[in-house]
Write a structure and sequence with these properties.
Blueprint (H helix, E strand, L loop, with lengths): L3 E5 L3 E5 L3 E8 H4 L6 E12 L7 E7 L2 E9 L2 E5 L4 E4 L4 E5 L4 E7 L1 H6 L1 E11 L2 H4 L4 E5 L6 E3 L5 E7 L1 E2 L2 E2 L8 E8 L4 E5 L5 E8 L2 E3 L3 E3 L4 E4 L5 E6 L3 E8 L7 E3 L2 E3 L2 H12 L9
Antiparallel strand pairs: 1-22, 2-3, 3-4, 4-11, 5-10, 6-9, 6-11, 7-8, 7-10, 9-12, 13-14, 14-17, 15-16, 17-24, 18-23, 19-22, 19-24, 20-21, 20-23, 25-26
This protein binds manganese (II) ion.
């Protein structure tokens, strides 16, 4: 049975651009190789935005060497990048962007959400790429709510949505470069889930709502992240109140990490090259 290694509490709050009041739940700086293949988790909101004319968000910026996965719970976002991709995602939708060799993109509130105002709530997870794919072509998957399968848990305990990976023979739609299970679990008060996970994989549980007890004792509440042992295949979770959780599970990438802002490579030299490539326009540009 999996045990709790640590619980990350009280994540640090800051703004990303003028549209995303985020709490950084973990980063490579805080959890390092223990959380591989994951690099960062930002939780934005829930936050209220009054109606406005100009979409708030983050202006154009680069990424290289990894993937950004954005899951929207409330509100609506629009994205466009130098590879010519454009997408709009709302509640329940996911955008899985593979930066790989590099993109320039902007991430904004959608025009309609900007005009009407309302509550914004989303998470952005960074997933590392193995060295062999870091300089591959950028890619982009818009995964709509209706494409994400939901499995009912035994004893009417709740539901599990599969964004990526496989659960009891059901597959999630996201294409990944290394084995990743990204599941959203909704558990009802005083109900339990027993999940079977691949042996040896990194496992963490992020609490969006409610309170849970993990591995029979450790408690985690809103915006907490529990890191579990890689050993053991069985994960017990009990809801102390109705809970919405993200289960992060994946094969660790056993390679050096050199992380600098929006670039995640394997060496300092590759970071220097990424910065040079960005400044000389080799990561492309956004259409005016
Ligand atoms: Mn970005």
């Amino acid at each position: 049975m999996k045990k709790v290694v640590s619980i990350e509490r009280k994540p640090s709050a800051h703004w990303v651009g003028d549209g995303f009041p985020v709490r950084t739940v973990f980063s490579f700086d805080t959890l390092g190789y223990r959380i591989s293949p994951f690099l960062l988790l930002d939780y934005a909101g829930p936050a209220e935005f009054v109606p406005a004319n100009d979409p708030r968000g983050v202006d154009e910026h680069p990424h290289r060497g990894f993937e950004t996965v954005t899951v929207v719970y409330q509100g609506e976002l629009e994205h466009r990048d130098s590879a010519g991709n454009h997408g709009k995602i709302g509640p329940g939708d996911v955008q899985w962007m593979t930066a790989a060799s590099g993109v320039i993109h902007e991430e904004k509130h959608s025009r309609e959400f900007t005009r009407l105002g309302g509550t914004l709530e989303m998470v952005q997870l960074w997933v590392n790429l193995p060295a062999e794919f870091k300089m591959g072509p950028p890619a982009y998957q818009t995964i709509l709510d209706r494409q994400i399968p939901t499995v009912s848990l035994p004893d009417d305990a709740g539901t599990l949505r599969l964004i990526a990976g496989e659960f009891e023979g059901v597959k999630g739609p996201a294409q990944t470069f290394t084995p990743v299970n990204l599941w959203e679990l909704r558990l009802k008060t005083y109900h339990r889930a027993e999940l079977m996970l691949p042996p040896g994989f990194t496992t963490a549980v992020f609490v969006l709502r409610g309170e849970i007890a993990l591995a029979d004792s450790e408690r985690a509440g809103e915006a907490d992240l529990a890191l579990l042992t890689r050993e053991g295949e069985r994960l017990h979770i009990e809801a102390r109140e109705d809970a919405t959780l993200l289960i992060l599970n994946g094969a660790a990438i056993d390679e050096p990490v050199a992380a600098y802002g929006p670039f995640v490579m394997n060496s300092k030299l590759e970071i220097t090259r990424a910065i040079e490539d960005y400044h000389s326009g080799r990561l492309g540009r956004l259409a005016a």
